[in-house]
Amino acid sequence: xxxxxxxxxxxxxxxxxxxxxxxxxxxxxxxxxxxxxxxxxxxxxxxxxxxxxxxxxxxxxxxxxxxxxxxxxxxxxxxxxxxxxxxxxxxxxxxxxxxxxxxxxxxxxxxxxxxxxxxxxxxxxxxxxxxxxxxxxxxxxxxxxxxxxxxxxxxxxxxxxxxxxxxxxxxxxxxxxxxxxxxxxxxxxxxxxxxxxxxxxxxxxxxxxxxxxxxxxxxxxxxxxxxxxxxxxxxxxxxxxxxxxxxxxxxxxxxxxxxxxxxxxxxxxxxxxxxxxxxxxxxxxxxxxxxxxxxxxxxxxxxxxxxxxxxxxxxxxxxxxxxxxxxxxxxxx
Length: 333
Known about the structure:
Low-confidence stretches: 243-255, 327-333
Strand content: 15-25%
Helix content: 10-25%
Radius of gyration: 21 Å
CATH class of the domain at 83-87 and 124-316: Alpha Beta
Shape: globular
CATH topology of the domain at 83-87 and 124-316: Rossmann fold
Order of helices and strands: HEEHEEEHHEHEHEHEEHHEEE
Largest sheet: 6 strands, parallel
Mean pLDDT: 81
Number of helices: 9
Number of strands: 13
Distance between the termini: 48 Å
C-alpha cells in the first residue's frame, strides 16, 4: 500500500502497527481516493462558532489492487465526532444520598470516599497500589496536569511528581478548555491516578477532528506502547462508528470504524492489555444523545455507545444523578 500511494504522489508514514498516514495535495488525494473535495460552512450552535471545513462528496474508493488490505479510510471529514461522558448534577436535594460513616454525600465523592466505601485499603496493604504499572488514558482534550497534582495533594495522597506523561497524537488536542472537554481528561487522570497512586500515567491526547481518525490513532499508539491498561471516557453511538465518513450532502457512509477498533483491541488482548470504555450517558438508547443524527423525540430503539460496544473492551459506567434531571435536545426542545 505504501508503494501504491507513493506512486500516486502522496507521502506515506506508518503511525502504528496497522495504521498509515497518507498526506499530499488536495488534487492528489482526490485522484487517489476518487472523491471530490469541497469547502462547507457549518452553522453556529450555542457552543460552537460557525466554521469552514473541507470534506469529500461521495464515497471513498479504494483501488481493487489493495482493497482487501484496507479496513477503512479516515480524515476525509474533519468534523468533530466523539464527546466526553462527564455529567454533573445541577441540584443536590438537602439530605440526599447521606451514607453512614462516609465523609461526603453521594454525588460529591472523592477518591478517598471510593477507597473507603469499596474497602480498597486492604489491597494497598498487599502492595496493589499501581507500583510498576502504567495507566493509559485516551482522550480528545488536553488538560492541566497541575490540577491533578493539586487534587491528590488535597486528599493527602503521596504520588510521584513526574508520574504524568502527556503524549500528543496527530498534533495533540490543543490548549485546555471546558469547551473541548478538558474537564473530562482531568477527571479521568485524577480518579484513576488516585485509586492507583503509585502508577505512572500516560495521557494520549488526540484532536477531536477528522471524524474518528485521531481516536483510532490514539488507541493504536497506546496499544503499541503496551501500557498495562487503557481507558477512555469519550464515546459516540455505534451507528456513527459504522458511518464515520459521511457525504455532507447525501450523508452516505464511506467507511467503518468498527473493524479498525476490533483489530486494535484484539492486539491489546493478545498483548495482555485491559481496555475500558465508558458506557455513555444514555445507556442502551444512545441515539437520543445530541449528535450529528439528532432524533426529534425519545426513541426506544436499542443503540449503544462505542467503543464500549467492542468485544475486547470492558464497558464501564452507569451514572445516577441526584434530583430531577432535564434533558435539552438540540434546538432547546
